[in-house]
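Quick one:
INPUT:
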């Protein structure tokens, strides 16, 4: 079997590629010309260079592939031009789905996000059936992923595409070279640069468990099925405390009101527009932090046999990898 993995040089994509290789599959990695390929250096894979927005390059990559893992996405909490994110996440997804269909792929695993799911009014965990309410889909990343998932579902209905949808929560762990927004939190906390926090929460999961969940979705998932790939719900205070315990630093104790952080986010975004550098805090990030982003993976556990490790093991692996690679 030849499996195409889009975004294979990225954090989750490279974990999926490694999981496929461990069970003896042939992997074709679809990467951009400018992609950082450090995560692929030691892997025996085929590499196809292209761009999600270039349909011809996507067609070349999908040709001859039995399965397609569409993992690639533009994941940033702030972009100077939101239209760029929509082109990558929505138009790019359409190109991948059509290319997979034309190639005759027997199964497509689409990596969505918990960002497309609804959140309860209180702090109880959401699941795949939690309805989305007005105000849940905040910012261009969530909006573009929500639109992309709606597109995939429509193509499934109209064209019969054999798609299984997975919703990773907040992956952390090794090979977060960029790093991701959550990886940045781990790095800054480990360096002692987060003296305060806001009252929010995340579902933390090891990136390698997310990758195994992708393979379980391929093998056992129902076409049209949706599965949350998460592990453990922790408050931001608990996450920071776990990081600081590992590096033997005191945990931050100051809890900032969200309204106090919003003016800082305005100034940070203004500075980002002037310099072109991603701000360290954004207005959308503060809005998102007003809710506990807690999720349940019970459906994936029961239907797929998904068995993630504890969140603290993921945090420990992330800190260890960042330390070994000079981020701290």
């Amino acid at each position: 079997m030849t499996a195409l993995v889009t975004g294979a040089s990225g954090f989750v994509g490279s974990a999926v590629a490694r999981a496929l290789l461990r069970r003896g599959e042939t992997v074709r990695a679809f990467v951009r010309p400018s992609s950082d390929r450090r995560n692929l250096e030691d892997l025996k894979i085929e590499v196809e260079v292209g761009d999600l927005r270039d349909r011809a390059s996507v067609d070349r990559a999908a040709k001859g592939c039995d399965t397609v893992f569409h993992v690639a996405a533009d994941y940033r909490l702030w972009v100077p031009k939101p239209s760029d994110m929509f082109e990558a996440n929505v138009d790019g997804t359409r190109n991948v789905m059509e290319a997979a269909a034309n190639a005759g792929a027997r199964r497509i695993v689409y990596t969505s996000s918990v960002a497309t799911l609804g959140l309860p009014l209180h702090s109880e965990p959401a699941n795949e059936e939690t309805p989305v309410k007005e105000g849940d889909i905040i910012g261009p990343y969530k909006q573009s992923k929500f639109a992309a998932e709606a597109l995939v579902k429509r193509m499934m209905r109209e064209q019969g595409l054999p798609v299984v949808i997975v919703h990773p929560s907040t992956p952390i762990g090794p090979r977060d070279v960029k790093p991701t927004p959550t990886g940045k939190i781990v790095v800054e906390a480990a360096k002692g640069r987060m003296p305060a926090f806001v009252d929010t929460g995340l579902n933390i999961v090891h990136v390698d468990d997310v990758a195994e969940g992708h393979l379980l979705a391929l093998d056992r998932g129902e076409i049209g099925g949706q599965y949350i790939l998460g592990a453990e719900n922790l408050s931001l205070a608990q996450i920071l405390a776990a990081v600081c315990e590992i590096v033997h630093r005191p945990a931050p104790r100051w809890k900032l009101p969200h309204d106090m952080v919003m003016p800082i986010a305005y100034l940070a975004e203004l500075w980002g527009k002037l310099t072109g550098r991603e701000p360290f805090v954004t207005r959308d990030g503060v809005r998102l932090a007003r809710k506990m982003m807690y999720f349940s993976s019970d459906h994936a556990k029961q239907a797929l046999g998904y068995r993630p490790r504890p969140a603290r093991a993921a945090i420990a692996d992330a800190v260890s990898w960042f330390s070994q690679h000079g981020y701290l």
